Amino acid sequence: MRFSFPLVLSWLLLQQTPAVPPVRISLEARAQQPGELVLLTVETEQPSSVTGTVFDTEVRFFSTGDPTVWQALLGLDVDLQPGEYPLDLKIVTESGVESSETRMLRVARRTFATRHLTLPEKYVNPPPAVQERIRRETEEVRRIFSVASPERLWEGRFRRPLGGRVISSFGKRSVLNGQPRSVHAGVDLRAPKGTALKAPAGGRVVLAKELYFAGNSIILDHGLGLFSQFAHLSSFKVKEGQLVQPGEIIGLTGRSGRVEGPHLHWSMRLGKGRIDPMSVLWLLSDGNRTRSAPKTISELYKRDLLVR
């Protein structure tokens, strides 16, 4: 009988320790490879808040309207090395029960093509007088991408900004006048000069100006670290600070900056990750698929894992 007290005490402690509610974590993507966008869904049995980190960066969750379902977007940078990366999550229920979850995010290898372009020498090896301008513009754009709006400025699906087909795909390694240069971190869409450029989703105009390499450019902040950039425009239809709606005309296409001919260059970023806009469309739009009207954001985003 002398062991009964510790046994009873242990049982009481177990009874007083709140049970950690089960958590369901899922990932959806066109492919888990460099340059892709991934949708993370965390489902709990009780109303909870969720925070997390991946690639040493905060994961920005948004509400689905259901306090037991939270979602976030993860951007796999075009230069991300294949391997497994820890996704660390912290869940806190309304009653204050905390739990931690770690999942390994597996990134597969991806091979990109190379493109060879012939351009005016001033755009390949700019003169010293221009290099300071390029440095200032690079720093300005870097600062824009480093500040994430705390609110989500887009809702529902993303759409193509215009109807032209892709003429240069994402991730190509560029060789300009025989010299290796940076990766093509966007897609080029065929567009005659003067084609209307429409906002693919809601957002705020955080840049609308002429840049040396990108020409007349617009950057839209969609919120939570997600940005769209459009380059080589002929004119602007919006001003910095302006909020735009999906499908609103924000500019006209052209051939300004470092280009061979008129087209639209469309790039996207999520945090530090440079991602393929076609991946965003696959995950966040209906594309050519016919779907019934969803009841929740979670249902809207649900996709099969087949790679098109």
Topology of this structure?
Elements: H1 4-16, E1 23-29, E2 37-44, E3 48-54, E4 57-59, E5 61-63, E6 69-75, E7 83-93, E8 98-107, E9 114-117, H2 121-124, H3 128-146, E10 166-168, E11 173-176, E12 179-183, E13 187-190, E14 196-198, E15 203-211, E16 215-223, E17 226-236, E18 243-244, E19 249-253, E20 263-270, E21 273-275, H4 277-284, H5 297-301
Parallel strand pairs: 9-11
Antiparallel strand pairs: 1-2, 2-6, 3-4, 3-7, 5-6, 7-8, 10-13, 11-12, 13-20, 14-19, 15-16, 15-18, 16-17, 17-19, 17-20, 20-21
Describe the protein's architecture and organization.
Strand 11 and strand 12 form a beta hairpin. The protein has five helices and 21 strands. The chain folds into two domains: 87 residues, Immunoglobulin-like; 172 residues, Glucose Permease (Domain IIA). The radius of gyration is 23 Å and the shape is globular. It is 16% helix and 41% strand.
What structural class do you assign from the helix and strand content? alpha+beta
CATH fold call of the largest domain: Glucose Permease (Domain IIA)
CATH homologous superfamily (4th level) name of the largest domain: Glucose Permease (Domain IIA)
What is the second-level CATH architecture of the largest domain? Distorted Sandwich
> What percent strand?
35-45%
Question: What's the overall average pLDDT, rounded?
Answer: 85
Count every beta strand, where a strand is a DSSP E run of 2 or more residues: 21
- Low-confidence segments, ≥5 residues, pLDDT <50? 1-17, 287-308
For the record, the CATH class of the largest domain is: Mainly Beta
Total number of domains: 2
Most strands sheet: 10 strands, antiparallel
N to C succession of SSEs:
HEEEEEEEEEHHEEEEEEEEEEEEHH
Oligomeric state of the chains in view: single chain
Radius of gyration: 23 Å
The helix tally amounts to 5
